[in-house]
Amino acid sequence: MRRWLIPGGIFIVLGAAAALVFLKIGGWLMVQDPAAHADVIIVLSGDLPVRAVQAAELYKAGYADQVWVSPPISPAAELKGMNISFLGEDFYNEKVLLAEGVRPDAIRVMDRPSANTEEEVREISEWLRDNNFHTAIVVTSKPHTRRVRTIWRKLIGSDPRLIVRFAAGDPYDGAHWWRHTHDALDVVREILGLFNAWAGFPLRPSRT
């Protein structure tokens, strides 16, 4: 009987640890830096319109004079070949910014679309350095914030400096992420993305 006490105790401890990780991991993904003045506010692609709405709020609060929009890879070229017009996410993000009170001359859509967050971070850093900017507020969704910070630190470092902020209107529930399909998919995607970043980005995005 006694010979099972130690393995049984280890099993209980490991089970309790796994349960704790399961319960807490959704909230752990959410990080946010204190809002501070920056050279520019950047809207990462995805989750239209809440990211753009949050960027507009930061702009109106005076945290930066410019708002940049990061465009994602889109099927625009393929659809153009079929004589179908495609208005991409960046188009609507720009419209949201305008509707929320951002001046037209304060908005810039970045040139090259990105297939994933790693490409977005590299493109943003190039734009910042080309403009001699040293601080950027990057607005994304709640569960995406930790991965953005991790990738930025791994690829860029401290200059340009990142201030990561999440969209207040994002309905993600980190405390109960397992209750909703969308939240659960967010958690799985972000964890896999973090593993990819920690491993040195062995996985590359497909563009097909």
Let me know the number of strands. 5
CATH topology: Rossmann fold
Mean pLDDT: 91
Structural class: alpha/beta
Main sheet overview: 5 strands, parallel
Order of helices and strands: HEHEHHEHEHEH
Question: Strand share of the residues?
Answer: 5-15%
The domain tally reads: 1
The CATH architecture can be given as 3-Layer(aba) Sandwich
Total count of helical runs of at least 4 residues: 7
Identify the CATH class: Alpha Beta
Instruction: Specify the helix fraction band.
Output: 40-55%
Specify the overall morphology. Answer: globular
> What is the CATH homology-level superfamily?
HUPs
Widest beta sheet: strand line-up: 3-2-1-4-5
Radius of gyration over all CA atoms, rounded: 20 Å
Low-confidence residue ranges? none
The CA-CA distance between the termini, in Å, is 59 Å
